[in-house]
Amino acid sequence: MTYVILATGPSMNQETADYVRGKAKVVAVSDAFRLAPWADFLVSNDRKWWEANPEAYLFKGRKFCSHPLNKAESFRKHVHMGRNSGLMGMCLAKDLGAKRILLCGFDMHGTHFFGEHGHGLKNTTEKIFKVHVRQFDRFSGCNVVNCTAGSRLLKFPFGNLYDLI
After folding, report:
1. The domain containing residue 22 runs over which residues?
2. Which pLDDT tens digit goes with each residue over 103-144?
3. How many domains does the chain have?
């Protein structure tokens, strides 16, 4: 079973989200649900993100947060995920039976496909990106391919999404 994780890096776009629809299970990370409202799962590790985006509670698929929320399932089985929502999506996919995970929008630098966060939310700093990369280094258990050209996440082999699904 292939899962595609759509993260919020600057390379994420509507074309990518549209391409994966119906070809695999799809996990939208935080604001990526705006590009893929039809995704199977929505994950955001950040309680403040959920509070700033109440429309996310209307998402039709399953919703997950590592903090207890009334309208989202709790997912905290993997201590090494820290506050890394992208890694949370990968851990969820693995736990749900993924044999292969394709990463899109995992740039690990820059801002987001939508620009800077508003609503008092913090943007990921270079220092935090480095912490996240170290957290990804501990992930194991299924085949992962990074389909994000120019990504600083080097643990996983790179591949072209259009060649893989």
Report:
1. 2-164
2. 999 998 988 888 777 777 777 766 777 887 888 888 988 999
3. 1
